[in-house]
Design brief:
about 220 residues; mainly alpha
Amino acid sequence: MSEVSSTQEFQYSSPRHQAESAISGMWLFLATEMLFFGPLFLAWIYSRHWNQQGFDAGAQQTELIIGTVNTLVLVTSSLIYTLGVSFIEAGDSRKLIQCCVGAWLLGLVFLWLKFGVEWRHDFERRLFPASDFAIDDPHRDGALLFFVFYFLGTAVHGLHMIVGLILVGWIIFRARRKEFSAGFYTPVSVVGLYWSFVDMVWIVLYPLIYLIGRGA
């Protein structure tokens, strides 16, 4: 269904042009984000190639259960938000709000498990890459490098999650003011793209952190 926006800006030739420009702009932004995450993942994989035993030693110290639960939480949150987009396409603003609230709460659960529980355990077990690093064997250097990537990757992803929560909260605020309808829901779609991107980044981080080298 084509959108008919009552808030068309002067620089656009039509409401459809405005909506397509917003979607394209978000895709372009996400492409620039991959210019950061792509090299990070490649450096991670390359470093593991030359420090396989050390990276395996580090991976074995991660908390697989928390990582797996968090993966399920984040995938579910994306599914719920996508349902919200479908509901607003049909003109159901109330169910959009319910879906956004559900996705927002699950995002909050993810952050609590990752940083409030898992990171706290990591610091308590002296797994932060510093002078008192807990792993003290021939694989120490590789394991320490693994945790450099681990903390960097999860910290940057966490910052993106926080931005995502702010954006979803913004959608909830606007939806409660009846600003979206079957004729106009571009912001909902744009934020959905960002939320799904954050999900996909974690899907790459999950095997890098918890699975690769787990059975070594």
